[in-house]
From TrEMBL:
It holds the Pfam family Myotub-related. This is Myotubularin-related protein 12. It comes from Melospiza melodia. PANTHER family: MYOTUBULARIN-RELATED, MYOTUBULARIN-RELATED PROTEIN 12. Gene3D superfamilies: Pleckstrin-homology domain (PH domain)/Phosphotyrosine-binding domain (PTB).
Amino acid sequence: EIHIKEPIEKEVNPHLLPGELLLCEASTVCKYVQEDGSHRGTFGKLVCTNFKISFLDDDSASDDNEPQFKNKIVGENDITLQCVDQIYGVYDEKKKLLTGQLRKYPETLIIYCKDLRVFNFCLRYTKEEEVKRIVSGIVHHSQTPKLLKRLFLFSYASAAPNNTDGRNQTVMFETLEDWRDELERTKGNVKYKAVTTNEGYRVSEKLPLYFVVPICISEENILKHEGRGIPIWCWSCHNGAALLKMSSFPKEQDDSTSQMQKAFLDGIYKTISKPPYELLRMDDLSSSLPSLQDIQTAYTRFKQLFLIDNSTDFWATDVKWFSLLESTNWLEIIRKVLKKAIEVAECLEIQHTNVLLIEESATDLCCVISSLVQVMMDSYSRTKSGFQSLIQKEWVIGGHSFLDRCNHLRKSEKEEAPVFLLLLNCVWQLVQQYPPAFEFTETYLTVLSDSLYVPIFSTFFFNSQHQRDTNKSGESIKTQSGPFRFLTVWDWSVQFDPKALAFLNNPLYAEKPKPDRSQRKTSRFKHQRQLSLPLTQAKPSTKRGFFREETDLFFKNILGKRIGKFINSSDEPPNSFREFYDSWHSKPVDYHGLLLPRIDGPEIKVWAQRYLRWIPEAQLHGGGTIATAARILDLMEEVQSLQVKMDEEHSQAVSGDIHSVPLLRNSARLSSLFPFALLQRQSVKPALPTSTWKDLEDEDDLVKRDDEFVDLSGDML
């Protein structure tokens, strides 16, 4: 039974952004509270605009009990059209996926979001005409293919005032000077040069306007094959070794073309590899890491574990949590990527060898590995501005196809793959293992992942710098000539006020190395077995060791044909990786030096804040890391107030530039997944359904199974 209360008397209108248009709406819609499956809910209005789907109830009009961490663009009950993953309709208690034209309209609408929220809207009490309009409107505007210029990004850019603050310290890498400054910062300007060969995109539309290559590479070579087969500089290590990337040639080639490309690569290799002074190792990532299709399949399975409709479903999956988690293969992919980054770091740091990453386009896994290596080896990339500059350099300007990989235009699911999300998951492993080494928090990474689906920023909505520049110079929608003024996601003040921004900064960031080495030992945090797989015997790899076959397979993979051994690779000890890994972990951690993630067994964890934040059953009230953080922030506030008093006594009053910290009062009531899950009610674990008990009785060997954890008395976390 649903208790029907009187419809809202007060008219509630949606808050519209510049350029946002109301397309359709429906009144007397009930938004279910999904935790307990009791069909309790709130009545309100469901609206769809050219930017978002929004539910408005009588609380939407009041500012009372406003959360400390509020997004100014996307509210708690807002779903941007790009954030919609799948839409289901419920017909006579049966769920059906909604796409295209609908003949019959559902009584309940279920929206699954890419940030893992789940919304249940009951349309049983809504007028039939309004149901038709709102359901067909939502399905059409969120699920059907779009033209690029139809994205809300362009509507907003043409209508919004250009009043963003200019204090953004992120290096955008849009000018030649930015690249030269980066070369100077990393001391790479001795062997490498920034080139202007691609000005006007005369080499390739996939390459950025400016990039860096070895000094010995001629302009003629860059122009020859549209930039393919050219080593492009990513970063230089303190010892002079450099990380490079290269896009390979198409696989299908005739013999004459293949021979010509082989000769070209031969010349390039001899130019940049001059042993014993300049050593070069190559790694074809398409053969040594999972494919994009494997990554997409694993993530699709993984996210299903967190798209929970009700409490019963949650506890049913909890019984087989470890089995389900392992079967997705997502954590194993994260482990493989981190291991590859450690192997590259070993070559650069210990062997003083240049590393060349090879991929078909050099804009997917190359971006992941090169970014991870820099986060691990360069402390600047662990600051907020440094990390943002890294994303600009390797991903945005580097040509990662955000539009295709995120499927923002709904054109082809074949191109979709969560490559950038994979990087954030890997960086999160480092952040939670070494918190003092990072200026930003896991909350920063979570809101960055959410920003992938907010189409008012141009950062994650183009496939290349060329595509952005081409569309930026077009005429605006209001027929006013002139370029669009796109926002960058790095201006966080657009989404958050100063109070909320404080949650993105790590108050315990170790800004300067401590002189006493004994104080730099890392604290070994307790494993949360629920968020990681139990330690099991690692499966032997089917591939040979890192760089063992790379030189043999180099031309085979680049040219698509088997060509005899061209470069002889020296054999490495098979346990060199393990020696490097164990040796580093046996020493005290320098938070401003090399950082190696722990990748054994349960060390690889589930990013709880991102994946569990909407599930009340997975939250610890008054527990988790937020309880510790709340106490630390209270102490910081007390220290700052004492500092102010001391300064006043010495007649040196501080001029208001003290870093503000968020007040986390009543930490005993906060959820462990704060600030996303605020003061939610305690979820009570229900009795297991009869079918589950029957399954347990049939499992005589349940005790012997290592991959399942059964605890019928306590919560999962």
